[in-house]
Design brief:
The complex is a heterodimer of chains A (about 325) and B (about 270). By secondary structure, chain A is an alpha/beta fold. Chain A has 11 helices and 12 strands. In chain A, α5 packs across α6 and α9 crosses α10. The longest helix of chain A has 27 residues. Chain B has about 270 residues and is mainly alpha-helical. The chains are: A alpha/beta (about 325), B mainly alpha (about 270). The interface between A and B is large, with 54 and 63 residues.
Chain lengths: ~325, ~270
Amino acid sequence: MTRSRLGLPDLGVGAGLRVPHYRDILQRQPAVDFFEVISENFMLAGGKPRYHLEQIAERYPLVQHGVSLGIGSPEEPAREYLTALRDLADRIKSPWVSDHFCWCRAGGTELHDLLPLPYTPEAIERVVTRAKRIQDFLGRPLALENTSSYLTYRESSMPEWEFISEVAERADIGLMFDVNNVYVSAYNHDFDPYEFVRNVPHERIVQIHLAGHTNLGRYLLDTHSGPALDIVLDLYRETIELAGPVSTLIEWDEDIPPLEELLAEVERARAVRDGALAARARRSALGLDASAVPARPERYRIVREQDTRRASPGWKQGGPREGVAHEERS
Amino acid sequence: MTDLSELQRWMSDALTRRRAVERDPAQVAAARARFTGNERVAPEAQLETYREQFWLRHTGALLEDFEALAHVIEQQAWERLVEEYLAAHPPSSFTLRDLGARLPEFVRSASWLPHHSLSADLAATEWAYVEVFDAVDSAPLDPSTLAQIPEHAWERARLLVAPSVRLLELDFPAPALRRQIRLGEDPELPARGEAHLVVVYRGSDRNLRHERLDRAEFVLLSGLARGQALLRATEAVIALGPEAEARVESELGSWFGHFAARGWLTGVELA
């Protein structure tokens, strides 16, 4: 039997570390359980990004989340990239390293996107083989995240949750479970998000992502803009009831708010998590299976109404880079 | 090649095309053969969502790093430049930070650009800032170290220039113009003047700065940055003429002191 969260710690509720908050975080040291950093923003030789990272690493636990592994790409991730990833993980003592079930390069071109894979046996084989190797190379657990997607392949022969479950089990890796992504893809591809949540191996979920998105009417864009919708928090509650205490992180990358607002979103998630854990404990006290969440049909309703907010010019996948664009305005 | 790899290479080609999927009948047919679509979004529109994001993301990344260049050449030329640049140099690094690495060279060869010489200077300047921003950290040279170099070792000693230093020989005051534009101003474009010899560097507070140098200082620091020994770098300054030679006699020590105080020097290698 797989140990819960692969034996990894529950870090509580944290937030994605983003450039506009560095100063506030270092000055005020707010009560956030942990921060997540985008690996590629810190796989650099020096300068402010590394300086800030080291300052914050002295004060908070950090976990590392990447956007460029492209584990399902035709070409394998470059050794140089993996070495830099491992060096960063060693430096910040990241208990696990995560990236996505996706591909991002082909024929030497880096597309800088999280492109969905067709859910086929061939793709499973490729990702399983590489995930095992990469996890060994990194020397710490690898967790892969379900992506938001905007297209569906004719050749897919299974639902997404079956695909990610089989990869996770066979490669013996963790799941970075993005609840907002489940909802976005459910909306975009007309499946039941609760079926997704219920059918992944919960004991392999090592971290959860929550975020907002943008509703363009015909489809949702995973912009990480705004707070998580209530319906996404409902899915989160269900996930926690099924999986138990799992490190949870708020991602906010578009129209990044003041730190206070981000912290309020952290507390909002914490309240949901505490409620779900209490419900789980009650079931346990009654001698019931803690993860036997009662069925709740018709609990969710997908709202196909376009946001009045301006549509995002592009999904950011991990927030703004810390770069010269920020240098003279911070 | 596997079916999966073949599909991905086709998609990569489709996503990097400038033309919208829906406007290319062959791409529409190919998309319909590969994607299901749904009652709200056709297969070609599913692919188009990703194609559009490819261009938005990469244009946005270049705009972040070359904001002043984009401002000066204006929207239409900027869009053409990005399109031609990405076609010539598709993204090949895992990080968007490297996306503009070849843009300065590309701008130099793009003679159709408005304000071409100024544009070339701006591109070089803006890329220097990108490189300096996250260059390897290095401890600054303690100025007292210079005084400890034995007299006989000076000729062949090398003063190591910090990795976070870039030297630019420009026709226009591009760093000042860059700064004005990034602060939201809309300055008059400068006229070509005397050469602007500039060092872009990262200060001890990790903020980026630039400083104008005179020709003698610039030649000296450039020689050191190229790894020249002190004697050779100094000879290059002397070759500028009698005035420079006289300044070497009287000012060399203060130049090194200034370079060290700014953090431009990071060590000494004695041969």
